[in-house]
Amino acid sequence: MAKKKTSIKDIAKALGVSITTVSFILNGKAKEKRISEEMTKKVQDYIKEIGYKPSHLAQSLRLGKSKVIVFMVEDISNQFFASIARLIEEKAYKNGYKIIYCSTDNDTSKAIELISTFKMRSVDGFIITPTPGLEPTVEELLDENLAVVLFDRWMPDVECSYVVVENKSSSFEATRHLIEVGCRNIGFITLESNQTQMIDRFNGFEQAVRDAEVNHEVFKVKFHTIAEQEASTKILEFLESNPELDGIFFATNYLAFEGLQALSKLHKNIPHDIKVVSFDDHYFFSLYNPSISAIEQPLEEIADRLMESILKQLDENLVEKPVQKLVLNNKLHIRESSRG
Question: Are 266 and 320 part of one and the same domain?
Fold first, then answer.
């Protein structure tokens, strides 16, 4: 026969105190309810001795808090998102929170369904890389006073906290670098997207090539997972049809992976035949031969700011929940692929 699970009632009976006293101590309200330190220690020592684990669901119902934050991104297997996730998990744990991870695959219907599911489980907040058209759902979360922070991209029409990076200025800097090392026919390979981060990266590139009056070609591919091969084939076709390109700027690191494969198939010598820069640095880029120039996003700082922002929204002592709009600086690492 299975051993009966210890309840708060059992603890109260064993110690000769009220159930309410035990409940207050378990929920961290001993000082607030003026329970003595001696009594608090007595209860804490006993539950430690018997190995009591409070019901997470029961606690969340009593407190109105689950101590769970959802981390919802485009693709959790992507190195950028995975790195942020790992850093956030550590910071959340230190503050008494757990993280649930999920991927939207940039699919709005899937994102809405996931948010609905997690709301029913009474999570405390959401850190989201929003999909196209998710504005009404995010506004609904905010109206319900849930903690929400966007990252990697933001929503111009929604008054919501976000943490993003300097996409436009970094893209401009990288393109200027290609121009300064002699490139006069520059290609920009990006995604078909109306999301803020991709628009800003395109605008930074376009401003730099127009200011310098150099020839340029833009190629946009549909959003895809790394496992899909169609985009890789399309990039190869684009490069084959534009043999005059002497510089190429990839808007994401996974586009760069596909592009480098295509350049290898075309027997293009980097940097002699064509110089290469990518947005979003990756450890692979420093191992590749030649090493690839790339824009590094400040992962640690992004994670810090995301947690700071959502914890402020979850702070019960703050009557006004602050809306924080943070834009962080990146760093361009110039490596062998784009040296003059």
Answer: no
Would the pLDDT of 61 be above 60? no
Identity at 206, one-letter amino acid code: E
Q: Give the mean pLDDT of 51-71.
A: 66
Contacts of 289 (CB under 8 A, 6+ apart): none
Using only C-alpha atoms, what is the Rg of the chain?
Answer: 26
Task: Write the CB contacts of 261 (distance below 8 Å, at least 6 apart in sequence).
Answer: 232
Q: Which residues contact 225 (CB under 8 A, 6 or more apart)?
A: 75, 105
Q: What tokens does 66 get?
A: 């689950």
Distance in angstroms between the alpha carbons of the first and the last residue of the chain: 76
User: Which 3 state secondary structure label does DSSP give 25?
Assistant: helix
Residue 56 has what pLDDT? Answer: 47
**pLDDT at residue 16 in the model:** 92
Q: What is the mean pLDDT of residues 310-323?
A: 82
Residue 24's pLDDT is 81
Taking residues 75-84, report their average pLDDT: 92
Q: What is the pLDDT of residue 62?
A: 45
Q: Is there a single domain that holds both residue 178 and residue 291?
A: yes
- Pairing mode, strands 293-296 and 331-333: antiparallel
Strand-by-strand arrangement of the 215-221 sheet: 215-221, 185-191, 247-250, 275-279, 293-296, 331-333
* 269 and 312 inside one domain: no
36 and 81 inside one domain: no
Q: Do 122 and 269 fall into the same domain? A: no
C-alpha span between 296 and 280 (Å, rounded): 5
Asked whether the predicted pLDDT for residue 19 surpasses 60, the reply is: yes
Strand order in the sheet with 161-165: 98-103, 68-73, 125-128, 147-151, 161-165, 325-328
Q: Is residue 61 part of a domain?
A: no
Cα–Cα nearest to 47, from 2, 97, 7, 94: 7
Among 122, 66, 135, 78, CA closest to 103: 78
Is the Cβ–Cβ distance between 283 and 310 less than 8 Å?
no
pLDDT tens by residue, 222-261: 876 555 567 788 999 999 999 999 999 999 999 999 999 9
260 in the same domain as 211: yes
